[in-house]
Structure formats: structure tokens, C-alpha cells
């Protein structure tokens, strides 16, 4: 598996008279992890849905490896803040859910199960594959949701604040897991987050969205991993990002 290049060219999105995105230009290189920051309501989640092919832009285009995105693709996975596990299915069956859908590649039952078990092993949940969601902690539920995305063997991974509801320790564990997954799979990843520190810890590049989803600034994060043991090197960039974010919020007020 390897990542795909994502190109967003002049993308706008409007619902009735409400303009959500306007002329967005963005690229994500193969295997790159890009974090997207911005004030509430600036269109971060809407941008992810456009990238996933769940919503068609009113103008512009998204291309994955030069192929226009016109709908959902089997090699693009989207994970949300809520794990959205089906309570009546076991963890294993939740991770397998969707692999037999029409848009997915046709796999034998044995191949599907192998993918699921590999994904569960990747996130450290193979030992609870027979459990149901009600038996899982919040962190375990998010691991299961990530495994469900990984079972599709995506070339593009889209994450909408997936760790926002977790406690600090569990969130740090999930951030380390995300880095390991991206490193192993090479998936091109877009992470929407409201947390500047999270973006600094995991991203290769940080993009700040301004009003109506227009990119206002971006920064390369050149500090090598693991960054949690060298937080002082991130301080100057943290100040730059916080200042730029405050400026964007003030303009929108």
C-alpha cells in the first residue's frame, strides 16, 4: 500500500445562500500527514467530506492521483470524532462492516477476515475482537474505528477530530498509534483538529483555514519524531500558529 497525491483546485461549497468553502487550494503529497486547523464553522469538516467524495463541490475539483473525485472511493477512508460502532455487532464484525459493499473490491470471505484481523492486530485489539462496543473504553472504541478504516487498506486517510473526546493520556496513545500507522502504510492523511499541540506533535505540515475555508497560512513542521520529548523546539512555531489563529478569529468576529 502507498499513499496518493491529493490536489484541491479552486473548491467552493455552498448550501443555499450559505457559502461554506471558497476557492480552496490545497495539495497533500504521497504519504504526507497534513493537519488542518481553523476556528469553528470555517469549513474544516466540510472540506473532508468533499475530499471523501461524500459532497460535491459547487465549484472547483478534487483529484486523487490526477483522477477527479466524483463520489466515494474504496481507497479513501473517513473517520469521525465519534466511533460510530454498531452496538449489536462484535468488534470484529464492526471492523469488517462495509468491506462487502458495492464500491469495495471483491474479496473472498477468507481475505476479508484476514484484512480485519490484520487491522485489529495493528491497533492492538485482536484480543477483544469478540467484544461488543458497550464493553469498550473510549480509547478502545476509537482504535476499533481506526481499524475499520485500515481494513479497507486506504491510500488516503481522512480524520475528523478523531481524538477530541478522549482524555489526555488516551489521546497521546492514539496520536502515537496514528503516527505508526501512517509510517507503516504510507497513507496520505488529512487530520482535522482544533488542538494546536496535537497538530504540532503529529503533522508534517499544518494548514490554517480562515473564513469560508480559505487557507490563511501553512507551516512545515521540521522537528523529527518523537516530538513529545523535545517540546521546547516546537514553542516558536506554536506561538506563530496561535497568533495567526487569533488573527483569523478576530477577522471573522
From TrEMBL:
N-terminal signal peptide: none
InterPro entries: AAA+_ATPase, ABC_transporter-like_ATP-bd, ABC_transporter-like_CS, ABC_transporter_ATP-bind, P-loop_NTPase
GO molecular function: ATP binding; ATP hydrolysis activity
The ABC transporter domain, residue ranges: 6-236
Cell wall biogenesis/degradation keyword on record: no
Keywords: ATP-binding, Cell inner membrane, Cell membrane, Membrane, Nucleotide-binding, Transport
Domain of life assignment: Bacteria
Family note: Belongs to the ABC transporter superfamily.
Protein name in the entry: ABC transporter ATP-binding protein
Amino acid at each position: 500500500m502507498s499513499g496518493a497525491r491529493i490536489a484541491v483546485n479552486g473548491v467552493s461549497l455552498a448550501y443555499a445562500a450559505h457559502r461554506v468553502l471558497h476557492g480552496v487550494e490545497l495539495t497533500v503529497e504521497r504519504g504526507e500527514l497534513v493537519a488542518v486547523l481553523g476556528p469553528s464553522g470555517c469549513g474544516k469538516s466540510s472540506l473532508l467530506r468533499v475530499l471523501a467524495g461524500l459532497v460535491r463541490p459547487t465549484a472547483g475539483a478534487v483529484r486523487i492521483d490526477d483522477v477527479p473525485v466524483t463520489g466515494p472511493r474504496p481507497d479513501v477512508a473517513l473517520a469521525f470524532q465519534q466511533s460510530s460502532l454498531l452496538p449489536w455487532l462484535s468488534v470484529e464484525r464492526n471492523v469488517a462492516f462495509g468491506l462487502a459493499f458495492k464500491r469495495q473490491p471483491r474479496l473472498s470471505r477468507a481475505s476479508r477476515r484476514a484484512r480485519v484481523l490484520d487491522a485489529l492486530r495493528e491497533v492492538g485489539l485482536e484480543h477483544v475482537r469478540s467484544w461488543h462496543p458497550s464493553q469498550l473504553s473510549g480509547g478502545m472504541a476509537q482504535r476499533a474505528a481506526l481499524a475499520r478504516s485500515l481494513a479497507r487498506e486506504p491510500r488516503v486517510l481522512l480524520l475528523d477530530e478523531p481524538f477530541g473526546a478522549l482524555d489526555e493520556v488516551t489521546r497521546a496513545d492514539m496520536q502515537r498509534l496514528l503516527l505508526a500507522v501512517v509510517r507503516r502504510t504510507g497513507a496520505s492523511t488529512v487530520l482535522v483538529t482544533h488542538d494546536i499541540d496535537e497538530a504540532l506533535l503529529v503533522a508534517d505540515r499544518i494548514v490554517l483555514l480562515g473564513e469560508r475555508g480559505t487557507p490563511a497560512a501553512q507551516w512545515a513542521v521540521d522537528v523529527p519524531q518523537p516530538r513529545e520529548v523535545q517540546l521546547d523546539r516546537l514553542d516558536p512555531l506554536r506561538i506563530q500558529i496561535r497568533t495567526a489563529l487569533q488573527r483569523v478569529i478576530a477577522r471573522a468576529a
